[in-house]
Amino acid sequence: MAVPGVPGVRTVDWRQAAADLIDPPNLRWRSDPVAWAKHHNVELWSKQREIMEAVRDNKNVAVRSCHEIGKSFSAALVTCWFLDTHPPGETRVITTAPSDKQVKAILWHEINKLHAKLGLMGRTNLAEWYVGNELVAFGRKPSDYDPTAFQGIHARYILIVLDEACGMPRELWDAASTLGANRGGKMLAIGNPDDEYSYFATCVTNPAWHNIRVSYRDTPNFTGEPVSEFLKDMLIHPDWVDQKRVDWGEGSALFTSKCEGEFPRGTSPFIIIPITMAERCQTLELPRSSPVEAGIDVGGGGDRTVIRIRYGPKTGPSFTFIDSDPMKTTGILAMKLREFKVERVKVDSTGIGWGIVGALMDASSRHNPTGQTVHDAEVIGINFGEGPTPGKEHLFLNKRAEMWWNGRELSRLGLWDLEAIDDGTLQELTTPRYEVLDARGKVKVQPKAEVTKELGRSPDEADALLLAFHDVVTYGAISGGSHEAADTNYQRAVEPGDWMHSGDLPNGFGDPVDPGDYGLGPAISSYGMWG
User: Fold this and answer.
1) What would the CATH number be for the domain defined by 283-529?
2) What is the pLDDT confidence band of residue 397, given thresholds at 50, 70 and 90?
3) Which of 385, 430, 483, 523 shows the smallest number of beta carbons within 10 Å?
């Protein structure tokens, strides 16, 4: 306390000093993380308190939750509490997430804010925490290290945080678990429960893991739990849940995961583009580049027509409209091609689409250099029901199967950036299933009519997206035990010789796979190409 009349001179509160000596605050708060948060004026709601206490009491904690419950904030707060209440020099925290954006812009953004607000020791940057010259915590995405890079990291007290855990590869889980093998090691896995076939899903039935589920029904905006208006505004809201109940359907996989906070059960292992693959591609931050291309799914009668723009590997905006007049439809599409300076457009030529292809060609300077034209795009008609690319007949039943498998490989290898797609397009992209027809692994994709019945709408947005990326071919191979992938240079066409090892692929995505790689047919040659 200050000495009256003597500026800058303070006396010691001996009673408090003695109490702190008998019961040091950091030791007291180590056993009571909720009290630690309260001391720092951090408001928590009940499930956040439960998460902190679970990490205190258990070696492994898995939290599966709906959207907007403060998952990354909770993981950041646990990180800060752990470092603040355990001895410096004996404590480490390692965090990871499926993408660099999720590490730096989400989890470590929260860590940095808390570090500054709470006045904690040391200094932080984008994804590191130093005390003096010692690195006490850091965040990395999977491709920043292979699992063996965890070797050699030791501390008496160590916490591993897996944010968006459903998207983490099994190898990372195994490697992370070795770090926490000692008595003071702990692991927190937290995320949306998107994929029942992920390693994250196995934690639910694994007795070594303490499980916490958070549904929208558990949150203050639904239970009436008393919290501040500020905190209410940050949490999942009834209006959003009601809208998604309409958009997705209450029994859909997306509603079950994003709203109920539970793994969808009974989903097929033959979903052609699993949601975990697609969601990783929403955070890649690939560069926007040429070519500027588009895909058009033409709606007949009262169905919607969709045009999707693409900038090299980056998905651009889409425009959707309904017009039963083919001439007006052509005019609207030509206007969009001109507006976005599209160089090449692939159009679904099935049914009414055939006439649209011809009309767009007549309106293009590429096809009609001497006539009155309104756009400069090369127009290519694609019939989903026609045969696959010559030489691929043993792999795909038709062009539709070839295009959807291409979308699977783009997703699995991280070769397209899906940041621009909305939840509806994500649902369309991750609903269709595939079927293997013969011993060689020929693939058939679920008929569009069946997908439409499941979704309650036609997957037009997904079809337009796949058309936009149709000329990107990324078939994989496993040949002679060598796992290699085709590089994609977005500034020029890729040659067959542009091969690189899978460890160099964006975000640590795995080796490319073709239908034969499941033991269902022969391997094929690996190549990649921008048309």
Assistant:
1) 3.30.420.240
2) very high
3) 385
